[in-house]
Design a protein that fits this description.
This protein is 73% helix and 0% strand. It is an all-alpha fold and 328 residues long. Helix 4 packs across helix 14, helix 5 packs parallel to helix 9 (202-215) and helix 12 runs parallel beside helix 13 (279-286).
């Protein structure tokens, strides 16, 4: 018999008790040992499942390389994206200009890194706006039955609207007004991220609403209601933490959607000005010279495709990793 009367360490007591029980009864001792072991953080289980998805790992690696390149690359490659080299107009790839130059002699690598910063910033900011609006509408509609009908009809209304024509109208109406208040560059940035965020929250709202409708009938939520916990506290403590999985998946996919939408607007000439390049703007500027200098559209097209594809793979991997039914 093990003497535990002089021990004050709970962990030592549990380990000694498990060892003594294992010696007397192997089956019960094994169960007690598993019970006494410290619980494993659930995010390690998510990471283990995420690692199984090879496409998601590859997408995460590609997106990390692109993100580091556009954020820290300009500190290494010192050429300004607006510097004009009159001796190297429309030059091909070389040691001094690895991606070549445009018809004005501006370095394409510097412009790609500068444009990538803006495109990814637009994607991230628009995603935050979209996720915030979608989560707010979805939680309120799912938790409060009286507001469910009106909010879902509002969601259906936004889903029925043609997104691209609506974005074009918003840009045409508010572009000059915001430029006068915030400046040309900041004004168009605020306008584009706001327009994309306001027109892309609906699917997140529907997903979150469905999760909340199921969660609010669970025992822990009903128990909180029975003891008089206010709805705001129930939502913050019990509902929101349990709908983070679909929100995270929607967030990753929202980045890709926002980058594509911004690229389309810039490609149509309604995005950022020429001295504030994005990948979509670089495509727009290179269309006129595409037959003679295909690299003008090749590099930004590859950057957009790789970024969107990698983010989509990350979202696919997160969806599988965060779904307990798919964990192995």
């Amino acid at each position: 018999m093990t003497d535990l009367s002089g021990s004050k360490d709970p962990k030592a007591v549990a380990e000694a008790l498990a060892a003594a029980t294992l010696a007397a009864d192997p089956v019960a001792g094994a169960e007690l040992t598993a019970f006494a072991a410290p619980s494993r953080n659930q995010w390690w289980d998510v990471w283990d499942q995420f690692k199984v998805h090879k496409g998601a790992l590859t997408g995460a690696a590609v997106f990390f390389i692109i993100f580091v390149g556009v954020v820290f690359g300009p500190y290494v490659w010192r050429i300004s994206p607006t510097y004009i080299d009159f001796m190297a107009m429309s030059a091909g790839p070389s040691w001094s200009h690895p991606f070549g130059t445009d018809p004005l002699g501006r370095d394409l690598l510097a412009r790609m890194m500068s444009g990538g910063r803006i495109s990814i910033a637009v994607g991230m900011t628009a995603m935050i706006i979209s996720i915030f609006l979608g989560t707010l509408v979805g939680v309120v509609a799912g938790f409060f039955r009286k507001l469910d009908g009106p909010l879902m009809r509002l969601t259906d209304l936004f889903l029925a609207l043609p997104v691209l024509p609506l974005l074009l109208v918003m840009v045409m109406l508010f572009r000059q007004a915001l430029a006068n208040v915030l400046g040309v560059n900041m004004g168009i940035f605020v306008l584009i991220v706001s327009a994309i965020g306001v027109t892309s929250w609906m699917r997140t709202a529907r997903i979150v609403r469905g999760e909340v409708l199921a969660l609010k009938e669970r025992e822990f939520v009903l128990a909180s209601r029975s003891i008089g916990t206010p709805p705001r506290r129930i939502i913050m403590r019990h509902v929101l933490p349990n709908v983070m999985s679909p929100i995270m998946v929607s967030a990753t996919l929202g980045i890709a959607t926002a980058i594509i939408t911004e690229s389309v607007l810039s490609f149509l000439g309604l995005g950022f000005p020429p001295d504030f390049p994005t990948w979509g703007r670089l495509l727009y500027d290179g269309i006129e010279y595409m037959q003679d200098y295909p690299e003008l559209v090749l590099w930004p097209g590859i950057a957009i495709s790789l970024t969107v594809l990698s983010v989509n793979y990350i979202g696919d991997g997160l969806r599988d990793a965060l779904d307990p039914r798919l964990r192995r």
